[in-house]
Amino acid sequence: MRTRRPNRPGTGNDTASEAPRLTDIVQRLEEEIALGLLRPRERLVEDDLLARFNVKRHVVRQVLAELEMMGMVTRRPNRGAVVRDFTTLEVEHIYFVRELLERAAVEVMPLPVAPEVSETLERVHAQHCAAVKAGRLRDVFRLNLVFHQTFFEACGNGPLTEAISQFAFKAHAIQSYTIANPSLLARVCKEHAQFLKLVRGTDRRALIDLVARHKQPAKVAYIEVSRRIEGHIEDPANGSPPAPVAGTRSTQAPEGLRRVRIK
Q1: Strand bridging mode 80-83 / 73-76
Q2: C or N: which end of the chain has fewer Cβ atoms within 10 Å?
Q3: What mean pLDDT is predicted for residues 40-54?
Q4: What whole-number distance in Å separates Cα of residue 193 and Cα of residue 129?
Q5: Residue 257 to residue 175: CA distance in whole angstroms
Q6: Domain count of the chain?
């Protein structure tokens, strides 16, 4: 086996060695946003990331730029980077476009799908359910992405699949309010099993309806929080939770969502 020589600062090897590290950090922060460990409007401080990941400042800035391009982080002059949050209207707009794109994919998807697609979906579904049962939420998040990417790629339209993925990235923070909820995760597993059944048949209408229904719990949970924050819910005298001070953004999950240990 060849011994790998250490990279010297300023060389091409140094830049090349940073690429996998950059990808790892982006994926790590993406997971933490999706899992609710980093909440909407939470600051991502460069110095904290430098200390945490032991990388150079230009790598941290590139990580934040990647997250911004994915729609998960907002960067403002003199204010740094924050996890993106959404108003109720923005959530409605994002999910409106997602439904249009995903419906289009199902409408052009050959049914039944190719056997290799069905087999991949079945394998990923089994792994996803096992991760849910074991409480491995990072694996739950990643396997859910793989399941849906495999499903939509079956439409055979690369640009359409890419557009669906881009809007899925934007929704990561929205999904953070549901991913640790055991009953909703059980629902996801059940609906994935329905996906498997429908892609082996020809009932396109049922598949379109399932795709639209599948995203609703995350959307509803996030909008509930957004309305509370935006002051659309009555005050405690009427039996409703208090609205926060104007100009602030809550980082609390809706009532009923359990915080669980991330493995």
Answers
A1: antiparallel
A2: N
A3: 93
A4: 10
A5: 12
A6: 2
Is residue 6 included in any domain, yes or no? no
**For 233, which DSSP code?**
S
Q: Which two tokens stand for residue 69?
A: 């391009």
Out of 52, 83, 114, a domain closes at: 83
Write down how long the chain is. Answer: 263
Find residue 44's DSSP bridge partners: 81
Residues 76 and 148 both lie in one domain: no
**DSSP per residue over 65-122, as a string?**
HHHHHTTSEEEETTTEEEE----HHHHHHHHHHHHHHHHHHHHHS-SSPPHHHHHHHH
Taking the C-alpha atoms of residue 19 and residue 80, their distance in angstroms, rounded to an integer, is: 23
Q: Which domain holds residue 164?
A: 88-238
Q: Is the pLDDT confidence value at 152 over 50?
A: yes
**The model's pTM:** 0.76
Mean pLDDT of the region 11-33: 76
- In this structure, the answer to whether residues 175 and 102 fall within a common structural domain is yes
The residue out of 62, 83, 104 marking a domain boundary is 83
Q: What type of residue sits at position 12?
A: G
